[in-house]
Amino acid sequence: MQTAFSPAQLQDPVLAEANGILRTCVHCGFCTATCPTYVLLGDELDSPRGRISLVKEMLEQDKPANATIAKHLDRCLSCFACMSTCPSGVDYMHLIDTGRAHLERTYQRPMGERALRWLLGTVLSNPARLRAALALAPLANLFSGLLPGRLRGLLALAPKHASNTTTAPGVYSATGVRRMRVALLTGCVQSVVEDNINAATIRLLNRYGVEVVVAKQATCCGALNHHMGRLAPAHAAAAATIRAWCAEADANGLDAIVVNTSGCGTTIKDYGHAFRDDPALAIDAARISGLAKDVSEILAALPLAFVSRRHLRVAYHSACSLQHGQKITAAPLKLLQGAGFEVLQPAESHLCCGSAGTYNILQPEIAGKLRDRKVGNLEGLRPQVICAGNVGCLVQIRSGSAVPVMHTVELLDWATGGPAPRGLA
Ligand code: SF4
Ligand code: SF4
């Protein structure tokens, strides 16, 4: 694609990067076939190619965003199916980030929209605030008829109560000889609503000789705010987490940083890029990105011994952040098959379930259609269990299915001697 940035514009490293990305796009449109919003809506402006043109126009002409541009960029799930499909290797992820940052700088959203985004970014990314909000949810439910549609949707998605366990910061020692020492991100939302996933991860890793440390200040990776284009709070959360892990690595050594929420994993693996121009954090951020691993990558390297074969029909949902964001597809399947599960993969496995960070709250209509399509494909396999490696997908799919939905590590923990996951007990 031809671009027309001026030499002065190209002095700006952000625009220079966008220019390079735009020039790799040959406008072929292959990406449209796998873009969930184009598949649903059929509008070119809701396709990757259309959004690339919108971002190009804004950046080249230094034009402020408007309501139309905001509508089509906001509808992007950041699922990155387009990147898996694109034959030219267009780096859509970093282009849409630049487009969203420009949008937030130059466009004033309606007040209700700004308030909702602030609320989501402020509450969901802070475990203490999220716990307090969940405690108030039953009260809010009494008045749900009076709430605007999207807040009603948020209440419907919210779990009835917080997890009854909390993974405290500290060191969780390996059983037997220590093979590795890793840090675990317990996650802002996950630590409150699905801490059972963290407990299962720690048990499983400890069982195979991995010492796990949960660093006190490493609570949120910044992904939730990043998805909404709220870069200042996203970078503040990421910076605190980077510092906490670097301090731990310097003091006691770390072989890896384990992430069991693939949405967070994609963001953490990109810290090196996000902080590349920050003189204070560039080196540390790149170091953390280099250490970050999805939990399935670590487990694939361990000699797991399955104590009992579990003959369950398991439908595996491959989270977009895992398959498109991190290009991890085979490891979770092999692990589940190794444990004796009958692993089934749904049709349209490349399509997003509609969770996508806060997307299911901000774009409930599209998210609902994607969820129903995903649940239809999963339930069509007649599974006894549905599993995935990302808490957002679990919450989203569970809201539309009566089949037990759980994290991959919960099944692997069970198959190696841990307790039966919630929903199977
Ligand atoms: S497939 Fe790649 S090169 Fe083709 S239009 Fe989409 S982003 Fe551009
Ligand atoms: S990230 Fe997903 S929703 Fe956005 S343009 Fe690409 S395929 Fe479409």
The total beta strand count reads: 9
Shape label = globular
Provide the helix percentage.
40-55%
Count every helix, treating DSSP H or I runs of 4 or more residues as helices: 23
Bound molecules: iron/sulfur cluster
Structural class: alpha/beta
Cα-based radius of gyration, to the nearest Å? 21 Å
**Overall mean pLDDT:** 93
The figure for the number of domains is 4
For the largest beta-sheet, the strand count, sense and barrel status come to: 5 strands, mixed
Q: Give the N-terminus to C-terminus distance in angstroms.
A: 55 Å
Identify low-pLDDT runs: none
Beta-strand proportion: 5-15%
Which strands sit side by side, in order, in the main sheet? 1-3-2-4-5
What is this structure's SSE topology?
Elements lengths: L12 H12 L11 H6 L6 H13 L6 H8 L6 H5 L6 H15 L4 H14 L2 H16 L6 H9 L12 E3 L7 E6 L4 H4 L1 H13 L2 E5 L8 H5 L3 H22 L3 E4 L2 H8 L1 H4 L7 H10 E3 H6 L12 E4 L3 H6 L4 H9 L3 E3 L14 H4 L1 H16 L5 E4 L2 H8 L6 E3 H8 L10
Parallel strand pairs: 2-3, 2-4, 4-5, 6-7, 6-8, 8-9
Antiparallel strand pairs: 1-3
Helix pairs in contact: 1-6, 3-6, 4-6, 11-23, 13-16
Bound molecules: iron/sulfur cluster (SF4) (2 copies).
The site of one iron/sulfur cluster has 13 residues, from helix 2, helix 3 and helix 5.
